[in-house]
Amino acid sequence: MSSLPTGPLYAQVESVLASEIASGSLKPGDRLPSEDELLARFNVSRITIRRAIQNLILRNLVEIHRGKGTFVAQPKITQELTELSGFVEDMENLGRKPTARLIEKKIVHADEIVARHLRLTKGERVVRIHRVRLADSVPISFDETYLPLEIGRKIVTNNLTVKPIFSLLERKYNIPLVEAEYKLEAVAAEANVASALDIKPGSPIFRIERTSYSTGSQPVDYERLSYRGDLIRFVTRLARKPSR
Q1: Which of the 8 DSSP states describes residue 31?
Q2: What Rg do the C-alpha atoms of the chain give, in angstroms?
């Protein structure tokens, strides 16, 4: 039997396992010992083990993979929404290694939504780019990017698995990014997004619609970004208006 801290038995088991996760003895992706193995290790009841595991699930430290067992969860990435920045900048600031996988780049006709965001006429040709963005080799985001035709044709001549679009716009093509409009909502992952992110269809994701503007409030980039809800959280800081 393992030595346990004080407190209720379920909390003692929970504390030991949480400490092993925090110390790296149990790493993200590792399978936890089975219930029977934990029963033998801690010499407690099955209901105690199950309550301890349930608490670890509620703390987002472990997750159940149906038919496979309980695994240490990937730690959530905390991303601030305080300034206009790209995925590469965000991940590098968090000490993560960003990479990308290009799925598609093609010229399409703008639908009503894309045309409105880019201030074009419906049916005008635009460049659409689909990419999966990864942090430390783990799929985090599925990005659907639309660019005006002239700009987009330049962008797709570059290696988009390496070069961030924001960086290309500003540093290579001298198109400064001044501000952006964000819309964030929680949705269920469609089949194509789920496949790209290696999650089940219907899994919770954050959907961000972002329109980025250059000087003169000219829209140059419209994106639909789908972030895995199990791996990322967004935070911001709000200032209160002075009372009148």
Answers
A1: B
A2: 23
Q: Domains in the chain, ordered, with CATH?
A: 9-72 (1.10.10.10), 77-235 (3.40.1410.10)
Q: Which residue from 139, 168, 144, 142 is spatially nearest to 154, judged by alpha carbons?
A: 168
What's the CA gap between 37 and 33, in Å, rounded? Answer: 6
**200/82 Cα distance (integer angstroms):** 31
Q: Which of 64, 76, 75 is nearest to 31 (CA)?
A: 64
Q: What residues contact residue 225 under an 8 Å CB cut-off, 6+ apart?
A: 141, 142, 143, 144, 206, 207, 208, 209, 210
Show the tokens assigned to 120: 């074009």
In whole angstroms, what is the distance from residue 224 CA to residue 130 CA?
10
What's the pTM value of the predicted model, to 2 decimals? 0.73
pLDDT tens across 16-39, in order?
998 898 888 998 889 999 999 999
CA 111 to chain centre: 26
Instruction: Convert the pLDDT of each residue in 155-198 to its tens digit.
Output: 999 999 999 999 999 999 999 999 999 999 999 999 999 999 98
